[in-house]
Amino acid sequence: MINTSFLEKIATVIIQDYSDRLAETTIILPNKRARVFLIEALKKETTHTILSPDIISIEDFVQDVAAIRAVDSIELLFEFYEVYLSVTEKQHQQSFELFANWAKTLLQDFNEIDRYLLEPSHVLSYLKDIEDIKKWGLEVENKTKLLENYIDFWKLLPLYYESLYSHLLNKGIGYQGLIYREAVNNLNHFSNTISNRTFIFAGFNALNAAEEKIVQHLLALDQAKIYWDVDQVFLNDPYHDAGLFVRRFKENWKHYKSNHFEWIVNDFSQSKNIQVIGTPKTIGQAKLAGSIIENIISENPTTSLDKVAIVLGEENLLMPVLYSLPSTVGALNITMGYSGKNNPSQILIAKLFKMHTNTLSRKGDSYVFYYKDVLDILTHPLVEPYANTYNLVKIIKENNYTFITHNRLFELNSNPSVLFQLLFQKWESSSIAVLENISALLLLIKENFSNDNEEEKIAKSFVFAVFKVINKLINYYSKHAHIDNIDTLYAIYKQVIDVAEVSFEGEPLKGLQIMGVLESRVLDFETVIVTSMNEGKFPAGKSQNSFIPYDVKKELGLPTFKEKDAIYTYHFYHLLQRAKNIYLIYNTENDGLDAGERSRFITQLEVEKQSAHNLTFDIYNPLLPASAYTPMVVPKSDAVMERLKEIAATGFSPSALTSYIRNPIEFYFQKILRIREVEEVEENIALNTLGTIIHETLKALYDPFVDKFISENDIANCFKLLDDEVLKQFKLVYKEGEIKKGRNLLAFEVAKRNVSNFLRMELESIKNGDSINIIALEKTFEREFYHPDLPFPVLIKGNVDRIELRNGKVRIIDYKTGKVEKASVTLKSWNGLTDELKNDKIIQVLAYAFMFEPFAKDVPMEVGIISFKNLKSGFLPFGFKEEKELTVNVTKEILNNYLNEIALLLKEIFDVNKPFEEKIN
Questions:
Q1: Cβ–Cβ under 8 Å, residues 515 and 317
Q2: What mean pLDDT is predicted for residues 163-185?
């Protein structure tokens, strides 16, 4: 049986000692979370119906004492900015963004000063004096404007504090520190008005100076009792941080000079199984937590998991842990909210901000969107099904629109939906108008969800979370109209959404409990699984987010990282205090963003090991598969064979043959399944697009000379038409793409240069006496291929770039925009021609020779490549090199040898027993 939990002990005391005046009793706990568990404990303790005592958190109690409403950090920042503007001369006033950078830190310091009841003018003038001493040696004439402003800033701190304090008090609102200070000031009045009430403080550890004063005041008047939950192991060890605060209170409080200190327990040294398990990375920890829960269930299938808690050292582990839990878990209670930051509706709003802020940053008369921003929004899952913009997306992709004006966008989508209009409405008016536009947009998105669908209900709650944030901002902005800048609005939105959370629904007292470290306060569990037991995560480590230096904090009694670590230490050891089975999981990886060495708490457990503790250490490594990837294998079904026969009848292109050699699976996808690549906007001209432009330009320039001999004059004419023709082809191929600047302008110039160099080479050869008669340009040829090894004839079909009669010999040319060397078109042996991809150019050009052979009659024929990146080599003819003799003419023997190799390749493609097997490079 578990040692009686702390809340059960409190319930017993309340029922025994206060049952006759429960209505006049208030129980104050460290957090709201524990309230539900205390009510449950009271319910179990009593046999008849009673009225529950008032149970509140310490923060709510202090607000009641002070009679001041707490404001959130963003509203406080707005209020502070208003005060700042009122006390700062016009010429020295900063924009809200600059102000916010230092104001947040300053507000934290004001908060600490007030919570610890320090004299603000003393602390803040102390800071000014420190800065003065730093600049001691500077002569007056050496002080720059920047330095003077810096020193003035420190001088102004007391004024900022006093002005903000009185401004907030007048409004009846405040930050936590102000409320605590006012609560202390109001103590006598408060205790007089509630003289008949009894306050029970339960489960506290670290109290700030204001809380100490309030509790001691009520104790002195005999209006309160306080029950600690501290183990004698921590209390009696003067160096143990888990007892740091309680030791101080026990020694220093006047109350304990004459009263007994309650309660010191002896639970930690009892028998415990503690397993320390290291595993790589964050996901490894989540998987491990899931498998521990699975083992607990499999060992005892009827066990109730409500005494089992998973405590997450890092909140971002929540999702991986939920996905790692076994399906047998059943009831589940998650006491932490899910961050509003990464859900679909927030991502949509973030993208909307990005699109419009980018647009506003482009100075110009027209409102110009960047295509990626537009497509990001139009293809978002909350927009795509409802905006009716499929055609618009297609037009943008097909026409390479890189930048689209607001007017053009609405022209292209002539019948816009209301959703589309809200998304692309100009953000040229005030911030409130923008927020109202987003608010209307979220309401419209909400209408698209059904209440019957579970997944849509979840999506709806995310939309609602963002909607609440937007409405909160509308509220702020309507009160503070002077902060009106879209960039500032976005910065504030990001801060607010960071702390926005979507709560999980669940039955708090049933099933497995998943919580953060702070939520675990005051609660006791039998089995505890703690993740992220690494330095920097658990404990959180040093973070110096303050203008007050460490030594000043130490002197004035403000908490430093030492005290913050002690708070974490108490939370950690309290989790372990009454638990029987404890699993501490840490990340074994020491490098990377998400890592750190093993937590000091684990070392402490090891060094200060209690005799009844069974402490074990394990490292769990995930099982690694023997092979990271298994190549795909697709057998040839009847349907595949039918499709292959269809291709054989309509035509195999040389590129289809080389795609099979490159990777049979690629051939299967492209030719059998006919899967095309998705159309994307080409922001920068792709190499294949550039190739198309050069091909088309040459075709257009040479078209007038088909069936004619080319003269020097003809080429000179081509030079004159060159620029206009390249531009025309760019417009045809690249459509609306931007070619006047950037990389595309360079590509445009490269295309002109390539064609110009080609024409120069052509002119040179004519001057040298070559007679060139163009037979065909960009023409498709086909020829049936019969072979005894093939089950049926196969049509070979392809598009030839250029065929000419040069000096009495037929020359078939394939243009390549990439670099091709002579070796790529020279063959030494026919064996294995179709086994290697490096022979792809040879397979291609000889296919053209085979197709044109009937038209060439008996005229000698050569085939080859002109490479635009290797124009100095001129025409690169195919050559067969046997020993030392090189044959460049395509003879009957060469063609027969080539066709035998192609027949072998086709036979493999048509072999029903040979599946398509993926080639891994």
A1: no
A2: 95
Q: How many helices and strands, by DSSP H and E, does the chain display?
A: 35, 29
Q: Give the closest residue to 45 by CA, choosing from 99, 96, 5, 88.
A: 5
CB-based contacts of 574: which residues, under 8 Å, 6+ apart?
205, 229, 242, 520, 521
- Measured CA angle at 865 (ends 728, 670), to 5 deg: 75
690, with CB counted inside 10 A (0-12, 13-18, 19+), is buried
Residue 679: pLDDT band with limits 50, 70, 90:
low
- How far, in Å, CA of 446 to CA of 442, rounded? 6
| DSSP conformation class of 400 | T
DSSP secondary structure letter of residue 860: -
In the prediction, which pLDDT does 850 show? 93
What is the token pair recorded at 554? 């130490």
The three-state secondary structure class of 265 is: strand
Task: Return the amino acid letter for 546.
Answer: S
pLDDT over 50 (residue 367): yes
Note the pLDDT tens digit of each residue in 202-250.
999 999 999 999 999 999 999 999 999 999 999 999 999 999 999 999 9
- The answer to whether residues 155 and 580 touch, using CB atoms and an 8 Å cutoff, is no
d(CA 519, CA 311): 9
Distance CA 352, CA 374 (A): 9
Residue that has been written with the tokens 């964050």 in this structure: 282
Is-contact 837 662, C-beta < 8 A?
yes
**Token pair for 499:** 């702390």
pLDDT in tens, 491-505: 888 878 877 778 777
Residues with Cβ < 8 Å from 119, sequence gap 6 or more?
Answer: none
Q: Measure the CA–CA gap between 227 and 533, rounded to whole angstroms.
A: 29
pLDDT tens by residue, 103-159:
989 999 999 999 999 999 999 888 888 877 877 765 555 666 666 677 778 888 999
pLDDT at residue 492, rounded to an integer: 83
- Whether residue 265 contacts residue 294, with contact meaning beta carbons closer than 8 Å, is answered with no
Polymer length in residues for the chain: 921
Number of Cα atoms under 13 Å in the Cβ half of residue 690:
24
Give the helix/strand (H/E) hosting 528. Answer: strand 527-530
How far is the C-alpha of 353 from the C-alpha of 359, rounded, in Å? Answer: 10
Cα 27 to Cα 35: distance, rounded to the nearest angstrom: 9
